[in-house]
Amino acid sequence: MISPAPLVDQFARRITYLRMSVTDRCDLRCAYCMPERMTFLPRSEVLSLEELRGAALGFIARGVRKIRLTGGEPLVRRDVMDLVRALGRQIGAGLDEVTLTTNGTQLAQHAAALADAGVRRVNVSLDTRDRALFAKLARRDALPQVLGGIAAARAAGLAVKINAVALKGLNQAELPELIAWAHGEGHEITLIEVMPLGEVDGDRTDHYLPLSGVAEDLAARWTLTPSGHRSGGPARYFDIAETGGRLGLITPLTNNFCEGCNRVRVSATGQLYPCLGGAEQVDLRAALRSGDPDAALAAALDTAMRIKPERHHFAISARGEAPALPRHMSHTGG
Ligand code: SAM
Ligand code: SF4
What we know:
This protein is of the alpha/beta class. It has a single domain, classed as Aldolase class I (TIM Barrel). It contains ten helices and twelve strands. A twelve-stranded mixed sheet has the order 7-8-9-6-5-4-3-2-1-10-11-12. The radius of gyration is 19 Å and the shape is globular. The two termini are 36 Å apart. The structure holds S-adenosylmethionine (SAM) and iron/sulfur cluster. S-adenosylmethionine (SAM) binds next to strand 3, strand 5 and helix 10.
């Protein structure tokens, strides 16, 4: 049998990494991510477990080697562990890695099962270790659960990477302490710039903190050495001599990483976004719900490869301006 063609776009970039949002729902309401009164999608619009699995297998057949489940909060979806187990069975049969990005609130319940299913590491979003600030940022007083989730993940043998959105005047002053804590616990940590995705209640440009300045402040305190580590995404990495750990800086508003881009995203409704910062999309749900899902899915993936843009074009919106893209990160999957 001839194996299906790998996913290569018109700029000769090979797509090997899929980020899949399994739900748009979440138990937190991070102020930069969604409004307090977020309208979630009717369940009929969200891909079923079978459809998620079918889409993932379609990607694996075309050469995707790493799948990250995200959301919304992936662990609030009731059948998510069935999907993790199904994907775990593909490890070594085309797939190298299944992982997830989680807010950590439900991690304590799921950590052991994730490890059993073949998951080796998870990204946990944690912007602050100050309980009052956490409650303000996430609009829920859930810091103890998240820290418990991280501890459970470690106890289950999972490597944990911390993701923190850097926010001017909010967690800005705490960032060095957060980095030192993460490294002290043996976690990698990555700082993220806030992105203009979807309407929220306030104006997130008020808290936009360019990481170039953060890096300068950190370099004045510690010895930062650029690291050779690459992830095929927008992160640059540094080793910090004093803390003994690795720091990633994600500056998505620059686009000098686009040329090495190896990823695409699928939303909870089955929209394939070839670029997080672009308006291009392909409807995989229609393909999966058609009379010949295998052929329709293959054709949809070919279309995605034709329309994946060379680079993204989003810029931080000026104060008071609408976000660059109307869809929320929780829809596309961060
Ligand atoms: N709920 C999970 C979590 O929080 O890790 C997974 C989904 S969440 C959308 C993925 C990541 O996107 C989180 O690290 C979150 O902090 C980040 N995020 C959400 N909205 C963002 C925005 N507008 N700009 C930058 N990062 C954002
Ligand atoms: Fe939920 Fe993650 Fe968005 Fe926070 S960042 S509201 S945890 S989806």
